[in-house]
Amino acid sequence: MATEVKVPTLGESITEATLGQWLKQPGDPVKADEPIASLETDKVAVDVPSPVDGVMGEQAVSEGDTVQVGAAIALIEAGAAAATSATPAVADRTAVGQAEAAARAEREESQEDEEPQTLSPAVRRAVLEHRVDPSKIRGTGKDGRITKDDVLAAAATEAKAAPAPAPAAPVDLAPPPAAPRPTGDRHEERVRMTRLRKTVATRLKDAQNTAAILTTFNDVDMTEVMAARSRYKDLFEKKHGIRLGFMSFFVKAACLALRDVPSVNGSIEGEEIVYRDYADISVAVSAPQGLVVPVIRDAQDLSFAGVEKTIADFGKRAKDGTLKLEDMKGGTFTISNGGVFGSLMSTPIINPPQSAVLGLHRIEERPVVRDGQIVARPMMYLALSYDHRLVDGREAVTFLVRIKEAIEDPTRLLIDL
């Protein structure tokens, strides 16, 4: 008897996904709730678990196909004997899959009897990209799990161990041919655009076509924040178990500025404007499949430690590919830190239906005038892109000035000014 594996509910308003990778092949034994396939949605990668124990049977779709929520994508046969009763083609694939499973089991036993483990979507992509054998990698993550860094380290080791390239052929001194030809290796590769990348492209273009986007700039002297961080970072980490970064200062400063300039925290819905008395701050973090924007809920009520812990958790789960759809829902305002990549200045694009996004950039010493003297100070450019249909220029400038005042005098964050 076979059990159908169906595409699970993927979240509000999401009706389809792309089958990114089969994690189990016909003939592989599977356990209940063990992932057998990875789906790519508009926002995150989602694993499809097996509903029962058994043997992987026929696969109804191929990698790269679009599947609907509720559609059957595979069969789980009730035991090895049931798998042999499938069609001849499936039975052949089952035999091959069983042989591969036996080979994998033999390799795993030879590695100090380590238990097999399920790889996260990010790790699976890295394994496929670098073509390394995960069974030969010793994991450094929790409970010995393999991380993306482990895969990259293994790939680097294999590259160093690879034989040196053969010496170059003698130079041909004959006259060149009449038609010039390109020299060296020239390769092109065509890959299917991921669902996330397609969604990002569509949403960003829609934002440009719909909103009246304008960007205003300011700069901020980071001297006081850097001094406060340097003074308290060790005590902060000892007490809260998390490092004190700059993002928590900017998140708390944004909460104060959003309270003073509520239109920046609002949105246009039809012919109505929605104003909010809370701040759900979206923070852009880097993931293997691109930038994602999980949301810090009720940031106005969190402490500095609460903000830092939330951001650190988002970063780790984005790297491991375990962020959930619920983590990305909502958001009233976005902070994007391009400075971590070395950006000096940018004009970020808003994330609809939000009306504004704050862009942070790299810190560098620049000459400024203080008390009539030219001095070097650590400066950062700030950029606020906003929907001019809702936010006036005066309000946008006022918002940035509030951010600047709070960062240049962090005491304001403590006494709520």
Q: What does this protein structure show overall?
A:
The protein has 417 residues and is of the alpha+beta class. It folds into 3 domains: 2-114, OB fold (Dihydrolipoamide Acetyltransferase, E2P) (Beta Barrel); 117-159, Dihydrolipoamide Transferase; 213-415, Chloramphenicol acetyltransferase-like domain (Chloramphenicol Acetyltransferase), CATH 3.30.559.10. 34% of the residues lie in helices and 24% in strands. The protein has helices at residues 80-83, 88-110, 121-130, 148-161, 195-210, 223-240, 247-260, 304-320, 325-328, 393-408, 411-415, and strands spanning 2-6, 16-22, 29-30, 35-40, 45-49, 54-59, 66-68, 72-77, 213-221, 267-269, 272-274, 281-283, 285-287, 290-292, 295-296, 333-337, 356-360, 364-370, 373-387. Strands 9, 12, 15, 16, 17, 18 and 19 form a 7-stranded mixed beta sheet that branches. Helix 7 (247-260) crosses helix 8. It is globular. The N and C termini lie far apart (68 Å). Residues 81-92 and 110-115 have low confidence and may be disordered.
